[in-house]
Task: structure prediction
Amino acid sequence: MKQQEVFKAMADPTRRAILKRLQGGPLTAGEIGEAFDITPASLSHHFAVLKHADLVRTERRGQYIVYSLNSTVFEDLARMLMDLFPTKGKVGGK
Amino acid sequence: MKQQEVFKAMADPTRRAILKRLQGGPLTAGEIGEAFDITPASLSHHFAVLKHADLVRTERRGQYIVYSLNSTVFEDLARMLMDLFPTKGKVGGK
DNA sequence: TAGATACTTAGATATTTTTCTAAATATTGC
DNA sequence: GCAATATTTAGAAAAATATCTAAGTATCTA
Result:
């Protein structure tokens, strides 16, 4: 996991909103864009950042490009966070 | 939890390193600073960001200021992340 | 193949963030 | 109170990021 890329990607509210929209399942770039008051070009930039962080996957379907969440990286990130703060309870993890 | 502030705080590698240093227990600003090749003023800015996100707590002890982690917010953040990606298993979540 | 639709890339500008230097505040010990 | 130490605040410069317009690529339909 490229930690820096992931955190940077998550730092922008628009990108978090994009991820949120994808919770319901895969969507095309256009469908995602409907919810935002931003040009397709800017959206595309955000997609690129999310993709670079490996937070989303893409698949071309005809003239559309379908985006979907990559849950694996979220899990890694959550794990990393759990790791970052000291354990208060009794259980194992250093 | 101020989600935006927390993510923004986590997005900088220096700030993540500061948090990491604090895993071992509270430290003064100066002690933290030893590990970084950066001016005290810049460090202080990073502290302010971390504090604003409520990721660290401070306490003045004489002429020193002691920083410590606020684990609560980390837990909130981890929870939030778990929440952000769709449940794969059968259990409950939305 | 031409025209329409969906999306990305390039390049410019505006905003935000990081960092620095210099100066200010707080506390200690004489 | 004064000098020394620890840290923060203010203000400026440099670097990174978000956004836009215009132009490019890919695919579909006729």
Q: What stands out?
A: Residues 89-94 of chain B have pLDDT under 50 and may be disordered. Chain B touches chain A at residues 3-4, 7-8, 10-11, 13, 16, 19-20, 23, 69, 71, 74-75, 77-78, 81-82, 84-86, 88 (CB under 8 Å). The first strand of chain B starts at residue 27 and ends at 28.
